Amino acid sequence: MHRPRRTAAATTALLAALALTGCSGDEPAAGQDPSGAASASSDAGATPADPSSGTSEPTTAPPASADGEPGVVPASGPVLSSDAGTLRVPKGWGSIDESGLSVSARAPKGLTIVGFGSVPAADVATLDTLENAAKVTSFKAEEVRIQPRREVQGVELYHLVGPELVGGRLDQFGTIHEGQQVTITVVTPYSTPRARREALIDSVLASLEWA
To answer: Low complexity compositional bias: what residue ranges (predicted)?
Structure first.
């Protein structure tokens, strides 16, 4: 079946839709790093925590994720779906919002949001061009940093970190899979300890199932 050619407009529209999932009245506290980088003082000695409830992790080692990473338990809460597949957020999350291009869910308290969306990929799109387009179209693009790529269920994803539109840190992941341009966003307050933020991201990505 012939797939209609898409332009950069589709990329921009999806990225904009996912960026707006983080819109909230919450503002970062005075003195917080506007780039979204966690401070050394907040990360130092941070205790890994259950991303779904804020409680400390169990003392027994959890099973490995589907990708074989020890200590990562896939999120098992509400399901976010797109044409590219499904992923889950932690138990207890709600307020699932859907737009024409994406779906998102919010933690019970605070500015912590996960978004998931996909659109048909451009015929000439590659992961490199997708990563570059995501960076240059980002809010405060000059502050966005490209991170090492990650592999999830055998598929490589780019990873960008930068400020969220109305306050907080945005971790954005994206790829092309089976003709779909996929974007996953995780918005967290600047005050979130690094260990808790990484535990949330790891659990959400570990739950991803490709269509």
So the answer is: 28-53
